[in-house]
Design a protein that fits this description.
Two copies of one chain form a homodimer.
Chain A: E1 4-14, H1 22-28, E2 33-38, H2 42-45, H3 48-58, E3 62-66, H4 75-87, E4 92-97, H5 99-111, H6 119-122, E5 134-138, E6 150-155, E7 160-165, E8 174-177, H7 187-205, H8 213-235, H9 240-252, H10 267-278, H11 284-302, H12 305-315, H13 322-339, H14 356-367, H15 379-388
Parallel strand pairs in A: 1-8, 2-3, 2-4, 4-5, 5-8
Antiparallel strand pairs in A: 6-7
Chain lengths: ~400, ~400
């Protein structure tokens, strides 16, 4: 087990009516004037935005609004939010939505007190010293951004998608999580979220660090839950307990508890980011459903141990040969993804073989000539993995 | 799944040399003058206390010391600590030790700013509004107090042992956890810690709340780890990874993550407290090794579902009859406890049948005429459970 530090300071209020605590939680975290960030119309149509705004009002908290956050959120809206906050002396951000909304809120929170361009942080040119407090009202279980210190923003017009990870600076102060608001998520979006949270665990689970049994067992337990409840949610989308299990699993998948004490490997996420950077209409989860099994298939040939352990402990595979067990597990994983309506190939995503060289080039420009913690990959191997995904 | 709130704000620094961060962590949490609380001689003999004091000194933090905390810590030392803090204008407490030391530190932290007797909080007469910040340097994985909001103190001379649970007020600000300092724990003490942390999970796991699959899977994963690593530690007490897994499991067992979304049932802890209140030389873990399986045996006859699930998922029992499966699981649990040198009966603890009426009477005086969340018990049933433990 490697040395680690861990903290999960976000205060989660989980359950029925959680959204009504927005005002009191904002007040408790010192907010007096906030920017409420949201996405498209669903937060309005469901009535959630209204409830949140009324709750803020009842607690005497002034607010302005910024809607229109899109999937794969971009720098331009972040800059607009920073501007709005400065003009209105805002001292807190409330995100009402899923990962894209929360990541936008975090970027605004980091940018407001910074005397420079917020992108400096994502470009690795500066470190966040302070940020406005962020509160979350979660509507999509997927990114785990409600409990993580991460934020993924795409720089336009280059479509350069960068994930920033902080230990502490970008962790939300509070997150209100009412599973009822996920009942009406379309099946495709629900499935994308399931793939995303599973990937957050896999990227931590595939590790060469020995002696992390407790972290492995927790990770396997959350994976098993997501697979079991993920199958159920497709036929019973308005079952509260099923939605609740998926929602809390999404938080546990990414708040750090599944990664304690080991080296992680975020190669699949980086490889997927190059797909959705070129094809912004590809949902992150759909891209991961294609890339993650391809990456695992390469690993089954070169470093099968962890894939075999996953196959046996999560899917109950009994094959004693590591490579064969790993491949059986990947097959079961693909079948699960397919059963919830996810694509399995790049061509289903509309990505052509001819685009692979450009993705590989950008991947290594962004991440270095050799990438990967579980197994090191040069452009030759990442090309092979993209080809395995065709 | 029930509504819940969850936060784990403690900052854990886990690994080799963690103890050297005492000064910087104390400074980060605003401490300038601290009381260092410890137990017997082991913190001195191991050199740990010296390292902590030097680290504080190097960060410019003044300190005074209070040693001599005993297992089943008592109010008198808490009062002495409060007095010392007030005389020396202390603004933080650093606990160097295990659960008894940390619980004493927490009680002192709550008592210093309170204009009354600290016992008011434990007696349920007042609620903690503020407390000094507490930092921990952990030496015994067992009580989980390094990450919990709990503190167990015994009032003398009545020997009234009360566990106070707070959501937030008593959570340590930081905890430094170096598994190396647990290498020299005697086998009996190591085993008591293992039983204690397992009980912290069982008391959450035995629940009638449906739809908590993710919480169940995490709990089962931590239980499996403790049992597997607990067997190993007896033959390889100085294996770093084994000790590290046990140490981190002890924190996860009690920081709340194994209890989210369900009704808990702390009857076994309450029943054990009556044993160690009358027999202060009985270690809490040893008492639990006797009581917990007796409580489970009663439940196998009256509400076998959760015991059967535990038997199947943690111990791999295949029996399809719930009562039989539960009883098989309890038998395997008893065998495990026995294999690590734990007692299985009240008589091994030096407790006589004739003491049962007094324990039952005090139990219900402290906890009410009917106790238990998983299954409700009157004095008739708690008497039966104590008898099952003879």
């Amino acid at each position: 087990m490697l040395d680690f530090s861990f903290t999960s300071p976000t205060k989660y209020i989980f359950g029925q009516d959680a959204e009504h605590s927005a005002g009191s939680m904002a007040a408790d975290s010192g907010m007096t004037s906030v920017l409420v960030v949201y996405g498209g119309g669903s937060a309005i149509r469901s009535g959630l935005l209204d409830i949140v705004l009324k709750s803020l009002q009842n607690s005497g908290i002034a607010y302005i609004q910024l809607g229109g956050v899109q999937p794969n959120p971009v720098d331009t809206l972040v800059r607009k939010g920073i501007e709005l906050c400065r003009q209105n002396s805002v001292n807190g951000i409330v995100a009402v939505g899923g990962g894209s909304v929360i990541d936008t809120a975090k970027a605004i929170a980091a940018g407001v007190p910074y005397n420079g361009d917020f992108w400096d942080f994502w470009a690795g040119k500066a470190q966040i010293k302070q940020a406005l407090p962020v509160g979350v009202v979660l509507t999509i279980p997927a990114a785990g951004s409600e409990g993580s210190g991460n934020s993924v923003i795409t720089l336009t017009p280059e479509m350069r998608k960068i994930s920033l990870r902080t230990d502490f600076a970008l962790r939300p102060k509070w997150a209100l999580m009412n599973p009822k608001y996920t009942f009406t998520l379309p099946p495709y979006q629900t499935a994308c979220g399931i793939v995303d949270m599973m990937a957050h665990i896999y990227e931590r689970y595939f590790s060469t660090t020995p002696g992390v049994e407790v972290t492995d067992r927790v990770a396997e337990g959350v994976l098993q839950t997501i697979i079991e409840q993920g199958a159920k949610v497709m036929t019973t989308p308005d079952n509260y307990d099923v939605r609740a299990n998926i929602m809390w699993s999404g938080t546990l998948a990414h708040n750090g508890i599944c990664g304690t004490g080991r080296k992680e490997d975020w190669t699949s996420h980086a490889m997927e980011h190059e797909i959705s950077a070129l094809h912004p209409n590809v949902a992150h989860g759909a891209g991961l459903a294609v890339i993650m099994p391809a990456w695992m298939t390469f690993m089954a040939q070169h470093a099968p141990q962890k894939g075999a352990q996953m196959a046996r402990r999560v899917f109950g595979v009994t094959n004693t040969d590591d490579t064969e067990a790993a491949l059986e597990g990947i097959e079961l994983l693909r079948k699960f993804y397919q059963s919830i309506g996810m694509p399995l190939t790049l061509s289903e995503l509309g990505v052509n073989e001819s685009e692979i060289p450009a993705m590989v080039q950008r991947l290594h420009e962004n991440k270095g000539a050799i990438i990967g913690g579980y197994y090191q990959l040069t452009a030759k191997e990442t090309t092979e993995i993209y080809h395995l995904a065709l």
